[in-house]
Amino acid sequence: MGLRFIFMLTRNDKTVEDAEQHLATALAAGVHHIGFKDVGLPFERLTDLNAAIKSGGATSYLEVVSLDKESEVASAKAAIDIGVDILLGGTNVDEVLPILKGTGIRYYPFPGRIEGHPSVLAGSIDEIVESAQALAARDGVHGLDLLAYRSTENVTGLMAAVCAAVDKPVIMAGSIGSRERIEIVRRSGAAGFTIGTAALDGDYPADSPELETQLRSIQRDVAGVNKHLSSHTPTNLDACFATFTETWSPRIAGQVNNMMIKLAKFEGEFLWHHHEVEDELFMVHRGKLMMKFRDRDEIINEGEFIIVPHGVEHCPVALDGTCEVLLLEPATTVNTGNADDPRRVTDLARV
């Protein structure tokens, strides 16, 4: 899955007043993980906000930043009533776990000592790691919400130490406002990270401070560090077929998993053969193809394709001159199948 980006509809540890407007922008941009805080908006609006997140196909997060036990317990109960998917933050685990038991809500509390508002992470790396290990050992704790960039310790070392010390996912929070920091978070072994203020205030490096541009820039950078960007561009079949003249000698044009996309020019009649384990797809790009089977002949015109199952004897015949054919078949497929023929090709060129 890769590193997860969670967009927080928050500023200074409060859900923003215009959260609904920003949510619409985030959903339109294809953001899949969206959260808010337990403070800033009334319960009714948080409930509607959560419903809109989930109806938009995203996973919802509520982060608890209340410092006193009573408020945190109330927020945990509110999380159930609101219907969030994941509860982030909070420190009163003994009180919260019984409340969440059996609800299906995944719980990621804060490790370490949390102080102030906005929240900061106090304590040494060793102390925070010890707290993280104790929390991760608890049944009902599904992961950790680490305020890494709100610690005065070495942040890179802190993140790596916590991730190495626990076997549950760790979400990083704080001032993560650049691709460089996202890459550092990924290298630490984290499962995800949150960004709120940087995007809402237009501070993330992007072509524009507009939220849509900010979110798309973050998503592009996350895809980049996850190595989920595609290097492929469109392939023009006419241009590819123009690069060769040989017939019955397939060229490799691409690959999808273990399936090869091959281009071949047929002229006249090939030979009867079958393939022991490979199915084949023949799609006619230009010309007309006849596929002979033992029980019938099939005509395949331009824009049509035919599938030949493995084990079925067949003989392709190009009608009316040269026929340009796209083949989709496993990488192990040899053009002559079980037959011995001078036109057998095992070392295919690429176009």
TrEMBL record:
Span of domain Cupin type-2: 267-324
One Pfam family named in its UniProt record: Cupin_2
CDD domains in the cross-refs: cupin_YdbB-like
Protein name: Cupin domain-containing protein
Superkingdom in the source lineage: Bacteria
